[in-house]
Design goal:
The chain is mainly alpha-helical. It has one domain. Helices cover 76% and strands 0% of the residues. The longest helix is centred in the middle third of the chain and has 23 residues. It is elongated, with a radius of gyration of 18 Å. The N and C termini lie far apart (41 Å).
Length: 66
C-alpha cells in the first residue's frame, strides 16, 4: 500500500513539474493499453468471447465478434 502511495506521489510531482509533457506520455500509455486489449480479443475464439462476456444480443456487438 505504501509503495502505491509513493508511486502516485511521484507521478503527481512529475505532472506538476513537467509543464504539460506528461500528457503525451500518458496518452501513449493509455493508447497502448487499448491496443493490447484489441490484440488480445482478436486471439480469443468467438464462442469464448460470448461466454466470457455473457453476451445475449450477439448482433449488438459486431466489432467485438467479427
Amino acid at each position: 500500500m505504501n509503495q502505491d502511495i509513493e508511486s502516485v506521489e511521484r507521478w503527481a510531482n512529475y505532472v506538476k513539474q513537467s509543464k504539460g509533457k506528461w500528457k503525451k506520455i500518458h496518452t501513449k500509455f493509455i493508447n497502448a493499453q487499448y491496443e493490447k486489449q484489441r490484440e488480445f480479443i482478436k486471439k480469443i475464439p468467438r464462442e469464448k468471447i460470448i461466454k466470457l462476456y455473457r453476451l445475449k444480443n450477439l448482433k449488438g456487438y459486431p466489432k467485438l465478434l467479427n
